[in-house]
Amino acid sequence: MPHFLIDKQIPVRRTMNDGTGSVSKVLSRITPYIPVLSWLPKYDRKWLRFDLLAGLTLAAFAIPDGMAYASLAGLPPQYGLYVSIVAPLVYFFFATSRQAVVGASSSEAILLASVLAVIAAGDPYRYIMLASYTAILVGVIAIFAWLFRLGFLVNLISGPVLKGFLVGTGLVIIMSQIPKILGIAGAPSDFFAKAVYILQNLEYANLYSVAVGITGLIILLILEKKVPRLPGSLVLVIGAIIVTSFSSLPEKGVEIVGAVPSGLPCFAVPDVGIGDFSLVFPLALALFLLSYVELTTIARTYAKTHNYEIKTDQELLALGASSIGTGFFQGFPIAGSFSKSAVNDRAGALTPFSGALAGLVAILVVLFFTGFLYYLPEPILAVLIIAAVISMVDFRGFLRIWSVNKYEVYIALITFVGVLIFGILGGVIIGVFLSLIGILYNISFPYMPVEGRIPGTTLYGDVTRKPAKEETAGILVVRVDAPLIFANSHMLLARVKHLMQQQAVTIRLVIIDLSPSPIIDVTAADMINDLNNELLTQGITLRIANASGKVRDVLRASGITEKMGAVRLDSSVYDIIKAWKSDEQDLTYYSSGEL
């Protein structure tokens, strides 16, 4: 494994004509945004054979895969070839991940088709224009997110939501390909309506088409299991084309790709109207969210496996540039591809150069070999899609979530059902909404346990977890297991009052342990001031324990330290109780020296 830093700047030698080092300054400024300028000059020739083999293997998989996903997106197959060229070549310049691959993706393709089919209303030209326009909008959204460093927003989607979405999307995609294998036309787009339509029309299935699909699936599974390093998808495509061209399968009703236009994609501005923005923007936003989730998940996975770091914000820029480039060159929305990245890594890719090589191979295909694709059967494309997404339908993942957290499995299941009932876009919206609601709920209703001293130590912990912890008569210690903000400050106030009423003895000291609370806002600080004033009227002392630096800053600014006296806000619960009992002033608060 080569050891190079993606983000390390290139040393630039000054020349006689560049005494001020202007070239060096320019490169030093742009290198962080175009990482290839940093690592390519240090590229070791020993890596080339690994990247070359990975690039060829990736191209063998990505080319038929891209054609299949173009079909899934409701576009002619050549548009998948265009994506296979432009997306990896642009990503090559901006990527920080060495193994991740961008290109056509199943979930994005089906989401695009489900929405544009309604907007385009059966107009093929308008459909193609809207597809390219959507890709550009996705890229623009990604660039804006990069400019404002919004990459962290992707973390708002929880694992259970993502699992429910992926399982539901996988089933939707598989269901969408079954009519192609059966040779049945006219199936509706809705998941359940499609299932009913298939059952009602099984008697009209084309047996030759079914035989081609089943045979192709069996061959592909055998190749992937027995010879995993062999590009099984390419072998299947070549074999299917040869068999179909020398047989009468097209005359038997087996649908084929037909003529695929040769030539490189041309730069073109999508022919759309101003009103199309409002129609397409919600779709582009959902596609951006989904594609960035997939890309960062892939990039982080391989970075961890191969022990290097990626920059998630830079991946935003890489996704944005790749999407915009794809849209202007007759493509459609892209994403990080789980299957292509796995092929790339399994083939031994060491740098992003392997993806660029795959794009160059795709150029050769569109220039010289598109005629060979004429007899490619549509059922084989459907099989490639099903084989690529079957791993997404991981119902055992629900069982694992159930074993860890029973509440979160309901979120996963709701997202899953939402995808099936309301479609991919509806599932994305439901998933994001549930993620935000989950976060807000946990913050608004935090766990606030009573703490007691662990016998024989100076540490305090939750008494409900181990009742053996010692509570001190007359002292109430409450811990806040969340950021203390406006959404939950009233909960703390109510919790303290409720616990004081439950105590058998009179409370004389109340301690709020803020060790798990990284932040506090003005509302919460005012609440603590109000609580302190109320307790003082009852002769009760209030103390704050284990406050972080940021929390102490807010509390000091609110004036609470003046009312509490000379005490340190970062003192431990044990030290506060010890000082209170002995009435010592050894916890002196230093306005300029507090840690």
Main sheet specs: 3 strands, parallel
Sketch the topology as an H/E string, one letter per element: HHHHEHHHHHHHHEHHHHHEEEHEHEHHH
- The unreliable regions are 1-20, 584-595
- Mean pLDDT figure: 86
Classify the helix fraction into a percent range: 55-70%
Across the major sheet, the strand order is: 5-6-7
Multimeric state of these chains? Answer: single chain
Shape: elongated
Number of helices: 22
Count of all domains? 2
The radius of gyration computed from the alpha-carbon positions, rounded to a whole number of angstroms, is: 30 Å
How many E strands? 7
Distance between the termini: 43 Å
**Structural class label:** mainly alpha
What fraction strand? under 5%
Overall description:
It is built from 22 helices and seven strands. It is mainly alpha-helical. The protein folds into two domains: 54-155 and 204-387, no CATH class; 451-582, 2-Layer Sandwich (Transcription Regulator spoIIAA), CATH 3.30.750. Strand 6 (509-513), helix 19 (522-537) and strand 7 (541-545) form a beta-alpha-beta unit.
Brief synopsis:
With about 600 residues, this protein is mainly α. The chain is built from 22 helices and seven strands. It has a three-stranded parallel beta sheet, sandwiched between helices. A two-stranded antiparallel ribbon has the order 1-2. A two-stranded antiparallel ribbon has the order 3-4.
